[in-house]
Amino acid sequence: MQHQECQPVLGNENTAFLVYLARRDVQGGDGSHFVLQAKNKETGALAAAKVIETKSEDELEDYMVEIEILATCNHRHIVKLLGAFYWDGKLWIMIEFCPGGAVDATMLELDRGLTEPQIQVICRQMLEALHYLHSKKIIHRDLKAGNVLLTQDGDIKLGELPGTGTGQALARPSSSSLGGRPMAPEVVMCETMKDTPYDYKADIWSLGITLIEMAQIEPPHHELNPMRVLLKIAKSDPPTLSCPSKWSLEFRDFLKTALDKNPETRPSAAQLLEHPFVSKVTSNRALRELVAEAKAEVMEEIEDSRDEVEDDDSSESASPPGKHKRDPSEASQLSFDGEKPPDSSLAKAVNGPVRTGKETTDGQSDKGKPDIISQPGQLGNSAERDKQPRPGSKERKSIGERPESSHLENFMEEKLANGSLDPPAPFPGSRSKGDSDSGSTSASESMDLTISLSADLSLNRESGSISLKDSRMHKKTLKRTRKFVVDGVEVSVTTSKIISEDEKKDEEMRFLRRQELRELRLLQKEEHRNQAQLNSKHQLQLEQMLRRFEQEMTTKKKFYDTELENLERQQKQQIEKMEQDHSLRRREEAKRIRLEQERDHVKFLEQLKQMKKEVKNEVEKLPRQQRKGNMKVKMDDFAQKKQTMEQEFLAKQKEDLELAMKNITAQNKKEICDKERECLNKKQQLMRDREACIWDLEEHQQQEKHQLVKQQLKDQYFLQRHELLRKHEKEREQMQRYNQRMLEQLKIRQQQEKARLPKIQRSEGKTRMAMYKKSLHIHSSGSASEQREKIKQFAQQEEKRQKAERLHQQQKHETQMKDMQAQCESNTNELQQLQNEKCHLLIEHETQKLKSLDENHNQHMKEWRDKLRPRKKALEDELNQKKREQEMFFKLSEEADGQMPASPTKHAKFVPFSSAESS
Description:
By secondary structure, the chain is an alpha+beta fold. It has helices at residues 57-72, 103-110, 116-135, 185-189, 201-216, 226-235, 249-258, 269-272, 276-279, 285-294, 382-386, 405-415, 443-463, 468-473, 503-621, 624-778, 784-899; strands at residues 4-6, 17-27, 33-40, 46-53, 81-87, 90-96, 101-102, 148-150, 156-158, 297-304, 309-310, 315-316, 322-326, 371-372, 476-486, 489-498. A hairpin with a 4-residue loop joins strand 11 and strand 12 (315-316).
């Protein structure tokens, strides 16, 4: 076997695998990955290698979520991650290998759905796995039969975990289940309302749909276009089983409980584990039998017993029966993503599959499903199975057949019992008009027979039942015999089915359906990438805006803080300069006053000297004998007076000096107080300007942020509309192709019917003519010429009848074509209506979101303005308090100055500046 060694990039040498490139099991529904079988080089353990081609790092990041979730999950019913590698431009995800393959592939391999015991075991184990995932806040979001894998031991494992990562209880819309089958109604609504999250209850809905798929091979609404399914999910009642009577009441009740359109009342996985349908499951024997049967050795036998179809120019002979043995089937481990078309292997012929042996008792032999000899629900009864008779040739009457066909067969056998003409194949159809007159021998009764036969055959063609030609063409039967061992007991199962000529068409339809799903998945993947890029862009814009807001606010505050510091520094410098000027002025004024006082004092002393001279002169004017006594008295008085006057003069000078100094000090204090008041007013005004600027900036920033968020919301909805229009265009294109295929298939079928009708008419004409001649021979009446005339009339009647049949077929084809065109137009109109509703709903939702955003912004601005008033009041109160404190300080300072002399070197006290940021 060809193999190539994969060098590990993520991991170590112990996790290196040998990948067998020859084993390409399955390709992803979107064409993005394929799965190979891998084998560990050292341990020999098998693994499934999911190989994903990644073109960029962004695509690689998309798959990291799945890797992280798989790495954190450790449960017996969830596939385990064995390793992850990036090599040769591809991401290799090594996961646990499940030999049993996927459930959907197993059903296709066995050509039937699962039995109820098998569904019970799978349901029980799926609920256990979901309970584990939901407890870790992980939503699977892609539950379907293709993601339920079977092990050799009869257990299931959930694969393909694209769900929400750990820690998220709610989820946004994702790329899960594009076909729409397992999607819950709340998930469907997310297509137009992206901000509406859903929770783990969506997995419960998908579980119910998956159980229906396992019971019926196909999920509900599988025959519809994928986009029409979304409309069904959103507007119709929850789906149910097509044949409820075949299933137990507990199963039907379980589906009814799980498929609740209201997620609030829908039960959880833990609650469903207590449901009677799964609570009593203790063994997985049913699944072990299923895996053994699917992996069993298959013996195929083809029986081709087609009768010869006589023609005027050629005849067809039956081919000999073929018999061959093929290898045990291997169902793929990972099934195709998306929707599966109807099974091409199911019998399409209206006569149904050939049934052999004992009737099955599990209620699974529905229309289009092969019959099984033994009872699938009771595979353990090997003794009974071994006693089953070999397949015979007994045919099972199909659903489309009328029960009266057996009467017609009996009638024909009676009519032709003694003739040489072999009886033709049974004519399914209505009861013959001549049924009660089979013993009549008149010619009119013979005509009644031919008319009755004509009516029967014509009616058969009108009702779409099988014709003579059809009955001969659908005699090819495929028998499959499977032999396998369960618990040491050998079991043999034989199935029979009609090989349909439409298998190629079904396979083509399956391929086209996969292509459509792939196109939609690629669109959705691109949409998610564009959405992620837009979200990243918006997040970056918001972060940049917030950083700019913070920088603007910091710049404004820093500017005003700097202005306040400069103002305070200037004030301090001015006050210090005023103090210095005051000291200098005091010294100069004191010096000037002292000089003046010294001059005045000198003058005063001169005056005293003059006064002394005057006193002496007055004494000298007295007689000589009086002079001596008066001189002494006068001089003593003068000395005393001089001392008093000098003291008064000096005191007056000192008082004048002190008064002048006090006036200068008071004037200087007044100037300093005025300057401090002026500076305080400037600081407070600057603080007001600072806070007003901050408030204006806050308001502007909130308005700008609102406009940005509003524009981002518009961008989001613009992208949604753009992606929705692209998706709608793709849907219309697919619908157009679908309608074109339906019309082409109808044309081909009509052409085949039109080409087959002359052959059928010739064969029928020969048969009817032979029957008529035989009836004339049996009831010989009249001469040979009369018989020839009757035969001629019969031939003319046959020609008219065949012409009428051809005309009727043409009219029927025209009616079918008109109906098909009307149906195609109806499909297109329905799709257009659905798309218009989606667009209208998206526009309405955008309008509501924008309106809600504006209302929230207005409410926020109102609350902000309401909170702004107390902030302004608090600022004014603080500024007024500082003014009062300053005035109180000045008042106390004046009172202190009134009690003690002012010091020439005393400096004014400054009011410290405190920032109003906190306000």
